[in-house]
Write a sequence for this structure.
């Protein structure tokens, strides 16, 4: 498990990352979301040790992370581009060798991975000859060679078409299945909701929400919706609930005192028909908007 | 659970995701050291770069061509046709016979003609000169202009022959007459031709260093910014210490520059063996060896600064601005190498990085004491050490800074 504890980084007088704390559990995909300038990239660069840490720490295996640990991580930085004028296989082998992988094994593995992405016949091409989507595929191959202990990916899905997103996601799942923790940042909330086990929302350098997607949707004040036959204005008078919206027999309310919703449904049944009653779980985008507002 | 990483290392991942390495892990200390991998990549990338190979080939062709012209000029001989009437043929033949020993670029052919009229006709046709006795000595008539090479040879031979005859008439031998008249050249300041040659070789040294420092330096700076701009440096930094990346890049470029300069020097020396300067080749091998040492030390000192210049930029477009101080400094070295003499040259020959080109010149000219190159080299090496240390610090810090150009001051004082 990768643990980020109270991580802080200042640039001059601005605090880009402010006491950020979250976990990236083994075998899970953790999505890292937040607007531009929220501090995602800075956090990831500190996790990877390419940017100094002002305060706090990164822990791996329950102890402070070392350079050797990071050497076993796969990392995909924010802006794409390996060496544009070098054959793709050569540079993949070079990068894998820098991480200690023997050249021959690196060549074999890289070729297999490239073939898996349908790039088997382009191994000798210069990177710049490839389409952007294909360059991104090469980039992910660079991150997973040699087989990483953890993956830290900055915007791995940006610029990919839906089919490429799926094959990239499949590849990442291969690693999480083997127990590899994966942290990736993204702007695309729908994608994060679909792929992630866990979510960390960053805003202005602070974690404003963190947890599994389910937990996040359950968190906050519970909301319920009641649709009855008659005007639902009476709900306002009950204790322990706050009405958010009423439209005829359709009412949306929040519960401040646990169990107060039971009073509402009993009262509704006494007053007439109840067409619908249920918990309303907000969409991820709503939560995001709420926590980053 | 055990994941076979397929690279010989096995990583254990237990239920809690805890992982411990069972051997030296993914390779620190195994296989080639990182700096060597970087060096190899730098060298291989360049050796497969068509522009680089073409540039080197063109330079070699230029050197070969220059040497060829020198050799050809010294080899080429002019053949003169001299006409003479029967009475003058013996003298003309004496000229033809002795010409090569007087000037090896002059060859004389003799054509006998019937009379003066025929001689004049031959001159108007394709003969070069007409040798005939005059009222007071001999006359060498040409169609219009004087043929300097031929005239000198004819003068010498005629003088010799006539003196010989006169001496016999007087009852002495020419050898007796000439005894004690020989003047042998001796040089207080050394041979002017040799000095000129030393000067030319010195210029070649300065030029080679200037070209290498500028071209390889610029390439080094742009490869640094290429890595920074594409962020591949972040991937590399996560894998190996940046110090090793820098060391590998500098070493790789130094090896390349050295290889290139050795090729040029070898071609130059071999070519020189075919020119009239061949007698000097043995004499300059020592200075050439010194030059190579100074070249390496000077190159390393500047290479690190080039890497810094690259790391301070944030895009390729910024390079112009961040490399200007270095370009100017290298121009300074160039001009110091070309124009300094006397006391200024002596001082500059100890001041890094000027010493990289000035000291080899003094060694060539033979004005340096034996210990002076050693001291200058030690100073230059110390200077290189300082630039490497400073450069490393700035490089490491500037490389990870994004968003606009980084000033030296920021890079020096910023936190990593």
């Amino acid at each position: 498990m990768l643990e980020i504890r109270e991580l802080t980084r200042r640039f001059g007088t601005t605090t880009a990352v402010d006491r950020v704390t979250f976990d990236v559990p083994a075998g899970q995909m953790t999505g890292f979301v937040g607007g531009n300038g929220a501090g995602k990239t800075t956090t990831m660069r500190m996790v990877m040790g390419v940017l100094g840490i002002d305060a706090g720490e990164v822990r791996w295996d329950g102890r402070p992370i070392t350079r050797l640990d990071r050497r076993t991580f796969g990392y995909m930085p924010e802006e794409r581009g390996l060496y544009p004028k070098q054959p793709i296989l050569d540079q993949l082998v070079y990068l894998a060798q820098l991480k200690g992988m023997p050249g021959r094994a690196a060549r074999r593995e890289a070729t297999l991975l490239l073939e898996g992405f349908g790039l088997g016949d382009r191994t000798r091409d210069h990177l710049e000859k490839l389409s952007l989507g294909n360059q991104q595929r090469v980039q992910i191959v660079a991150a997973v060679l040699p087989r990483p202990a953890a993956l830290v990916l900055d915007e791995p899905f940006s610029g990919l078409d839906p089919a490429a997103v799926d094959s990239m996601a499949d590849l990442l799942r291969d690693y999480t299945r083997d127990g590899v923790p994966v942290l990736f940042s993204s702007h695309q909330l729908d994608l994060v909701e679909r792929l992630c086990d866990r979510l960390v929302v960053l805003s202005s350098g602070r974690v404003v929400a963190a947890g599994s997607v389910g937990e996040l949707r359950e968190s906050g004040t519970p909301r319920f919706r009641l649709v009855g036959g008659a005007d639902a204005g009476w709900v306002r008078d009950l204790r322990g609930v706050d009405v958010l919206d009423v439209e005829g027999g359709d009412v949306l309310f929040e519960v401040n005192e646990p169990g107060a919703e039971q009073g509402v449904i009993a009262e509704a049944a006494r007053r007439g028909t109840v067409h619908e009653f249920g918990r309303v779980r907000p969409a991820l985008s709503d939560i995001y908007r709420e926590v980053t507002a | 659970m055990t994941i076979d990483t397929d690279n010989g290392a096995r990583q254990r991942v237990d239920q809690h995701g805890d992982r411990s390495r069972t051997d030296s892990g993914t390779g620190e200390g195994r296989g080639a050291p990182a700096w060597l991998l970087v060096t190899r990549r730098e060298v291989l990338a360049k050796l497969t770069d068509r522009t680089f190979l073409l540039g080197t080939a063109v330079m070699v062709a230029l050197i070969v061509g220059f040497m060829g012209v020198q050799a050809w000029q010294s080899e080429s001989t002019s053949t003169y046709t001299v006409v003479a009437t029967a009475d003058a043929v013996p003298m003309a033949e004496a000229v033809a016979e002795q010409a090569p020993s007087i000037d090896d670029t002059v060859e004389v052919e003799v054509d006998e003609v019937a009379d003066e009229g025929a001689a004049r006709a031959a001159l108007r046709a394709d003969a070069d000169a007409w040798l005939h006795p005059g009222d007071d000595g001999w006359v060498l008539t040409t169609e219009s202009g004087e043929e300097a090479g031929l005239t000198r040879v004819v003068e010498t031979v005629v003088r010799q022959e006539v003196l010989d005859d006169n001496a016999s008439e007087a009852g002495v031998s020419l050898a007796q007459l000439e005894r004690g008249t020989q003047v042998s050249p001796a040089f207080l300041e050394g041979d002017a031709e040799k000095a000129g040659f030393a000067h030319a070789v010195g210029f070649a040294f300065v030029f080679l260093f200037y070209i290498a420092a500028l071209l390889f330096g610029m390439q080094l700076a742009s490869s640094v910014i290429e890595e920074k701009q594409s962020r591949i440096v972040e991937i590399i930094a996560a894998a190996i210490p940046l110090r090793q990346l820098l060391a590998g890049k500098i070493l790789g470029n130094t090896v390349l520059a050295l290889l290139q300069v050795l090729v040029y020097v070898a071609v130059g020396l071999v070519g020189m063996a075919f020119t009239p300067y061949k007698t000097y080749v043995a004499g300059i091998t020592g200075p050439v060896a010194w030059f190579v040492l100074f070249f390496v030390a000077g190159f390393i000192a500047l290479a690190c600064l080039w890497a810094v210049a690259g790391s301070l930029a944030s895009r390729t477009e910024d390079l112009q601005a961040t490399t200007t101080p270095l370009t100017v400094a290298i121009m300074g070295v160039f001009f110091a190498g070309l124009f300094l003499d006397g006391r200024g040259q002596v001082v500059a020959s100890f001041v890094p990085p000027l010493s990289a080109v000035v000291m080899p010149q003094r060694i060539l000219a033979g004005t340096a004491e034996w210990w002076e190159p050693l001291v200058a080299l030690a100073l230059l090496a110390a200077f290189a050490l300082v630039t490497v240390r400073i450069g490393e610090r700035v490089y490491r810090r500037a490389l990870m800074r994004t968003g606009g150009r980084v000033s030296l001051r920021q890079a020096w004082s910023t936190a990593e």
Remarks:
- Residues 1-29 of chain B have pLDDT under 50 and may be disordered.
- Chain B has two domains: 34-69+191-413, 79-176.
